[in-house]
Structures are given as structure tokens and as C-alpha cells.
Automatic annotation (TrEMBL), chains A, B:
Its EC number is 2.8.3.16. It comes from the Bacteria. The keyword NADP does not apply. GO terms for molecular function: formyl-CoA transferase activity. It holds the Pfam family CoA_transf_3. This is Formyl-coenzyme A transferase. Keywords: Transferase. The lineage of its organism: Bacteria, Bacillati, Actinomycetota, Actinomycetes, Mycobacteriales. InterPro entries: CoA-transferase_III (IPR050509), CoA-Trfase_fam_III (IPR003673), CoA-Trfase_III_dom3_sf (IPR044855), CoA-Trfase_III_dom_1_sf (IPR023606).
Length: 414, 414
């Protein structure tokens, strides 16, 4: 046994969170994304899981060997500690890891041995971040929260009456980032004042706060007319998707008067649009007017797109200020130079799964994206963590593993 | 003139970012959300705008008096500094504000007087966060980035072939949170090491990193089958929306075997589902099997929902572990007790707009949500900021205002 085997992979001391250690007891998207983001920023993140993995360890998509591509994506650069959560000795070890690290991030519910009060009684400067479904402790996930948040009723084609769920788990992603922000803010406060922090972060409140920040709740409470479906248009300004002669779709946005002027010039509709402004007594430099009269503008511009191939459209748009993008599938994106030539994406040889381009953080620090590191397998770092952080000997660790309290790294078959 | 008039509203010294000052030169969603979030965490955030406001100052939705509900929502708790961006003296004042604060967040492009190199030459520990559309400097917004990211091709009803844009600007929101996380991480690093940080954060890379983190790029590069539209189902597990006898829609998710068992018991389909498992030779405790056979399960469960009113369905679901939510419009959410009785929402008397419930941060710190503070009007704090931070006298400030270099607070008509 070599308990320090994985320390070679720990981030360098220049990373923003170098020296910060986090214990994560988590599953699914939000809390794991929080921990992974902290790991990317240089923290040592120890994901603690039941032996065999939490409920997300085999989540789709899977490889042919039943390994989760999903799990690997959200747990890059962490260490894995596996223990029997019902074993009191294992619970004590996990508590000690939390107390030693000083930071816990969890979305686990009903784990009394991780309760804030008991832990903070021992270590008052503890940072304890509890992610919940709802503030009242009841369960909720991205897809149910989204149903309550109002967006499915305004997403999708204009003539549709059914709700349309988003596929991107946007609330989970936002919740994970709010959780990471909470941790780093509390770490900074602790550095300045010495104080710990208890953070509670309900997924539902992430959604409702965002709905409020974007003005939807104020609009309703101030007696606004209510939002309707507007298809792929952009509320309050000009946006539309167009189809080319060869059947490719482009999203076009004209946010500023300059964008809009370029769009009328490109499509040869400047005279028609000027005549329309006079006839309607409006000024399309005002984005609200562009939005209100979008359907007639869509028709005017659509003819130009419908007569040209995607290649011609793309070349012509590139010479203008118009905001534009060709719709792509995930498969097309995966082979796009903006992925394959992007320094944010780094070739990762992910054990058990294979080699692919995995993303670092979207932000670079002093021109550098943090190095991408693979996700561990369940229990890969149990022995190293017990040795490094709790000072256990090899014999003690072997005894814990033999008793089933913890699971250590699986040996390769000889 | 009372240059300290607004300091009463500054956050208390126990807030995580107390003592941190940020200059924000921004517009639209991502960068303003970053600054607002930092303000909620206790930083003093000075939003610097052109006189009359940036391109987002009149963005929809508007009140009858043409005030932007949208702008108020994303700029709560900031101070407003207004100046003529083409005036070299004003540029110098803004640069000095940045150098004095030590932190700049901006999504402005082409403002050479805000370039990192020149500012860092004077203040090497500067934290400079540049939000971009794309990494190459070309323009992109949430709606165009989304088209490239792949989600519109898999969002919406199963039988649809057109792309469906999201309405929630999920990439902007995530970008704003990544930006805030970058700032706080860099502030912490500066506290520990003394070093400044240059952060570059392209909106497009936020989307592409998220697509990668969620496994879509790896799946494609590993030769996976590609994703198709699955309507309101949840990929890889069981989720479906059902309609009640009175026409109300519910989103149902059965993520765990327990959720699923409760769902079959509630709907009286346990025998039928067991028979189905035997006939298909599958085990629905495996979430992948629930997903693969979702259509027949949808039909079995749907009958139960279709025979009951929403009130009965809601009551019955509440007694189970099943994850569920009634679809709501924004207007319904705005009057829901989970908003009106939620301590995260605080009554805000927003000058120029009116009184409504505005959200604080979704996370509470030691049981408390930060106090919600109103958004300023353009130039409200110009004089106070010049006095407090640059030490200008009242006469000097009046001269700058008279020359049109800055705009100070608009006096109420006498």
C-alpha cells in the first residue's frame, strides 16, 4: 500500500484554492458540480460515498462496460473515499475527516451524524453547506423545480399549449455554482474573521431567486400582462431562427441598432424596413418595436436565408456585426474546432471509460485553464485519505477494510 | 451635497465580502448578475455606466413610465456611477476607481482604457474579470451560444424536428455565477499570496464546459448513439408529465426504487408493473429499464391521473416519497405561498417602479438571507463615489458634472 500515491495529482500551490480541503457527501448534479468546481480551483476535494457508490454512480449515459460517462464528467479531479454509511465506526471516520478539513458540502438528507450543530460544537469555524430540494426539507429535483418555476409554460413553439421541460438541468448547474460560491465566500470570511458559516441552499430557491432576478415575479406582482409563448424569438428585442435553402437553421439576434442595420443591409431589406417604419409609425432603433413587429420582420428577412446555402449564409454573416449561430447537435459540437482546438478542452484518459476531450473551468486564470484530472473510482483514495489526514497505519486501514467499514482501492487482477 | 448619504445602506461587517469593493462596467445579464451577487454577499459594487445608461437600461419588461423592471432586478444593491465614456477625463476617473477598488468586472469590449495590462502595470494585484461572448473576441449572446451548444435540438415534444430555444437565459446565469466565483476565488488568493489575477470568461465556453461536464461531448466522442428528443421525460430514469381530470399538469419523477414503488402503489399498478417486468424480463429497480420502457409505464400511470382532480392528485402525492410538482405560470408562482411566505423574498420599495417581493440570495448564511436593497438610478451615486473614493471636493464634482464628464444624482423636481 502506498498511501501517498495520489498526491502527485494535487494541484499546484498557485491555484486560487490551494491548501483548502473539502469533504463532499453528495449525489446527482448540484453538489458534485460544486465539489468538482472547487477541485478545479485547486482545493483538495474528497468525495465520500457508500461502498459501491451513491445513487448517481451508474447514471446514464453508460459505456458498454456499464461505467457512467455522466459520473465521470461531474467528479473530475476529486479523491474518492468509500465507507459503509450504516457503520458507526465509518460514520466517526467521516465526521473526523469533515472536522479536520473544516468544510463539508452535502446534499444528503437525514444523515444525523453530519448535522451542523454537533459538528460545529466541536469545530466552531466549520463551513457547512447543505443543499436541499426545498427549504422545508421535502424532496425536489431539477425537473420538478422547473415545473414550479414557470418556464415550461413559455418554452417551445408559439402554437403549443403543453409545458416544455428544459433538457439542460439549468437549476442544478446554477445551484452547484451558488454552492461553490458559498464555500469560497465563507472560506474568505473565515480567513478574515475566523468565523465559520452554516449555509443552506435549496434548489427550489435557486430557481425562484433567478425567476425574481430576471424580473418575472415583479412583472406579475406589478400587474403586468403575463408572458406568452414566443417560440424562438427573444423577448423585448429582435431574435429569430431562419432556415437556409439546404435546410440548415441559424439563430439570429439583433440586440443593438447597429446589429439591426447590418441585418437589413445584408438581406437587402433596408428600403422595405424603412417603408414599414413609416407605415407603422415606429422606429426600429427601439428594440421593443423590433420585438412587437417581429413577425413581419421575420418574413422580410426569411426570404434572403431561404435562397442561400448555409455556407453562403455563414460567410456573409461573418462579415457583419449580426449575432448569429448555426444550430448544432451534440455530435456536431463534439467535432467542432471550437471544442477540438479549444484550450479549455484537454485530452483526458479517463480510467474505465476511455480517452476524450474534457473541459476545464470556462474561466482562465492569468491565461491558463486548470489542468483536467480524471474522476476516481469508488474508494480509490480511501487508504491514502485515512493515512494522510487521520494518521491511520496500514494495519488499521486493512482492519477497517476487512471489517467492511471502508472500501480501499480495488487491485487490478494479477 | 451629502456624499455619505448612501453608506447607511452598505452591508454590515459580518457579510462574507465586507470590505471588498468592485467596479463593474457591464450590460445585459451575466456581468450584472455577477456584480449583484457580490453586492448581496456584502461587497460594495459600483456599476459604472454611460450617462443615460448602458444598452440594457431600458430593456423589457418596462413599467408604464418606461422604467425597466428587468434592469432593476439585476442591479439590486449596487451604487451607480455615470460618466461620458468618450471623455478622457471621465475615463481617467473610472480607471482610478478601478485601481482604488482593485477589482474590475466587465463585459465591455473595445474599451482600451480598461485593458488589463495598463491597469496591472500600475496595480499588480489587480483582479480583472473580462466576460466575453466567444474566446476569440467575437460577439455572442445566450441565444446564439445555445444554438451551438446542442440543447435546442433535443428540447421539446418528441415528434418535433425544429430547434427549441430555452427561454431561461441559462448560460448568462451560469456565466454570471462563474464570474462571481472567479472574483471571490481571486480575492481569497490575493489575501493569501498577495497576487492579482486576470480572469477571462467567454460565455460560449460556459456553455461548452457545461455540455462537457454533463457528459454529452464524451458520449459523442466515445461513439455513443447520440441523443434524440424525449419530450418531457428524464433521460436515463423515470420522469413524465401527466394531466389530471380537470386539465392540470403535473411533473412526476421516480429517481429511486422507493419513488417508483410508491408510484406503482399510488396508481394501483403494482400487479400490472410486476407482470410487465416478467413479460419483458427487466427489473424496474434499475432506472435505465424504467427509462427504456417509459411509454408503457406512462400509459399505465396516466389513467390514475386522468380520473382525479388536481387537488386530489396533489393530496395523494404529498403522502408519498414521489418527486412531483404542479406546473405553474409565472403569475401563479408570484402569488404562491412558496414565494409570498418565503424569507428569501423581501418586500422591496423600488424607486421609480413600485413595491414587490424581490429575492435575496438563494443561500442563507447562518440562517439569514442578506437584506434586499433597491437598484439605483443612473448616476445616483456618482458624487458620493467621487468624494469617498477619489477624495474630490463638492466644487470639483460640480465642475465635472457641469462639463458633462459625469452625471450626478437627479434632483427631485421642487
Amino acid at each position: 500500500m502506498n498511501p501517498t500515491a495520489s498526491t502527485d495529482e494535487l494541484p499546484s500551490s498557485t491555484a486560487p484554492l490551494a491548501g483548502v480541503r473539502v469533504v463532499e457527501v453528495s449525489s446527482f448534479v448540484a453538489a458534485p458540480l460544486c465539489g468538482m468546481t472547487l477541485a478545479q480551483l485547486g482545493a483538495e476535494v474528497i468525495r465520500v460515498d457508500p461502498i459501491g457508490g451513491a445513487a448517481d454512480y451508474k447514471r446514464w449515459p453508460l459505456t458498454e462496460d456499464n461505467e457512467s460517462i455522466y459520473w465521470a464528467g461531474l467528479n473530475k479531479g476529486k479523491r474518492s473515499f468509500a465507507a459503509d454509511f450504516r457503520n458507526p465506526e465509518a460514520q466517526g471516520l467521516i465526521r473526523n475527516l469533515v472536522l479536520d478539513a473544516g468544510i463539508l458540502v452535502t446534499n444528503a438528507a437525514g444523515r444525523e451524524w453530519l448535522d451542523y450543530d454537533e459538528l460545529a460544537a466541536i469545530r466552531p469555524d466549520l463551513i457547512h453547506v447543505q443543499v436541499l430540494g426545498r427549504a422545508d426539507g421535502t424532496g425536489a429535483v431539477d425537473y420538478t423545480v422547473n415545473a414550479a418555476a414557470g418556464f415550461p409554460q413559455v418554452t417551445g413553439p408559439e402554437n403549443l399549449s403543453d409545458p416544455v421541460n428544459h433538457v439542460l438541468p439549468a437549476w442544478d448547474v446554477s445551484c452547484g455554482l451558488y454552492a461553490a460560491l458559498s464555500v469560497v465566500s465563507a472560506v474568505y470570511r473565515r480567513e478574515i474573521t475566523g468565523a465559520g458559516t452554516r449555509v443552506v441552499l435549496p434548489l427550489e430557491d435557486v430557481a425562484f431567486a433567478t425567476v425574481g432576478n430576471l424580473g418575472y415575479i415583479a412583472e406579475a406582482q406589478l400587474g403586468g400582462p403575463g408572458r406568452r409563448r414566443i417560440g424562438n424569438a427573444v423577448y423585448g428585442t429582435y431574435g429569430c431562427d431562419f432556415t437556409t435553402a439546404d435546410g440548415i437553421r441559424f439563430m439570429i439576434v439583433a440586440l443593438t441598432p447597429r446589429h439591426f442595420r447590418d441585418l437589413t443591409e445584408l438581406t437587402g431589406t433596408t428600403h422595405a424596413v424603412t417603408a414599414l417604419e413609416a407605415a407603422l409609425d415606429v422606429d426600429f432603433r427601439d428594440e421593443g418595436s423590433r420585438f412587437e413587429h417581429r413577425h413581419v420582420l421575420d418574413s422580410l428577412f426569411g426570404a434572403w436565408f431561404g435562397k442561400r446555402t448555409a455556407a453562403d449564409v455563414e460567410e456573409a454573416l461573418a462579415a457583419t456585426s449580426i449575432l448569429h449561430e448555426r444550430y448544432r447537435t451534440f455530435a456536431e459540437l463534439a467535432r467542432d474546432p471550437r471544442v477540438t482546438d479549444n484550450p479549455m478542452f484537454q485530452k483526458l484518459d479517463q480510467p474505465r471509460i476511455g480517452e476524450y476531450l474534457a473541459p476545464s473551468t470556462p474561466m482562465s486564470f492569468d491565461g491558463v485553464h486548470p489542468t483536467v484530472r480524471p474522476a476516481p473510482a469508488n474508494g480509490d483514495d480511501t487508504a491514502a485519505v485515512l493515512s494522510e489526514h487521520l494518521g491511520l497505519t496500514g494495519d488499521e486501514i486493512d482492519a477497517l477494510a476487512a471489517a467492511g467499514a471502508v472500501r480501499t482501492k480495488q487491485k487490478d487482477p494479477a
